[in-house]
Design goal:
97 residues, three-stranded parallel β-sheet, 15% strand
Length: 97
Amino acid sequence: MNAFDKVIKHIKQYINAQGNNKYNVRVKYIILPNVNDSIEQLNEWIDLCCNIGVKHIILDIETSYFVANQHNIPKHIYDMILFAENKADEKNMKISS
């Protein structure tokens, strides 16, 4: 089992241990410009989270990029956030940023 699969397994265990408080388990998607900054990649992550029972995703932008570009964030990053918020609504999930 690789490290990613172990993390997914543990997230499922945390969710199952929460009973009716599934929103207590939060996972984070850190947007890394030019690495995972597409709607398609984010969509796959949201679908995976939904499939394993995650109800709360935190979106963030990689810190050093954000600090250097905080007044010049590309439009597609804002589009990703809007996409995530809309998809979360459809899936009865919560998105925080």
